[in-house]
Amino acid sequence: MLSLHQISKRYGAIQALNDVSFSVPQGSVFGVLGPNGSGKTTLLGIIMDVLKANAGTYSWFGLPPHEDQRKRIGSLLETPNFYHYYSAARNLQITAAIKGRGADDIERVLKLTELWERRDSKFSTFSLGMKQRLAIANALLGGPEVLLLDEPTNGLDPAGIAEIRELIRKLGQEGTTVIMASHLLDEVEKVCTHVAILKKGVLLTSGHVDEVLAAEDMIEMGANDL
Ligand code: ATP
């Protein structure tokens, strides 16, 4: 699905990523785990072609990066600007029109995110968790094969956090590959099938979540203070 090969990124004197290589299997819920400043957002920016790496290469779907691939990737790296006084469905219609999608696709994503019953409610009446679910619904319009999320539960209340984690698990079960940055070890344990752990821009380890998090050398690698 996605392969990174020796990606490095500097901001002046700061080495944000240093020789990072890993692969994201198709159908995985893949956590990019690391403390603040470890390079997670930089990494997502590079694979979305928003930032240029100083060194290294990556490929999506086994192909070098290309504009056409953008249609196959949904992203929440930039939060959509929803209109507060429009309904959920009306807000989605705006993105659907841009992407050339119809009412059936809007219905699909509203049902997937369990917002169908609330489709005619104004965005301003939504809880934080519902707003985030609508943002995910918006990113899922057009049926992307992979969804990119940066700290998707940040700033949410406990109910919202539970809703979003449940939704991410469901998306994975239904076959969407999800790549999500998180600084929360327990979130990755609960939600992800695979993980790559970054610390100060260096990849400590990556692989299946059960194997990586069970490894005895996790503490030696310094992952205890994530
Ligand atoms: P956070 O969760 O705090 O966003 P992160 O793991 O996503 O952390 P990055 O935001 O990718 O990490 O930052 C990695 C390093 O690069 C940090 O030291 C950060 O200060 C630095 N950095 C990020 N963006 C810039 C920038 N535009 N200019 C200079 N330094 C930057």
From TrEMBL:
GO molecular function: ATP binding; ATP hydrolysis activity
Keyword terms: ATP-binding, Nucleotide-binding, Transport
Domain ABC transporter per the UniProt entry, residue ranges: 2-225
Domain of life: Bacteria
Signal peptide: none
Similarity section: Belongs to the ABC transporter superfamily.
Record-given protein name: ABC transporter ATP-binding protein
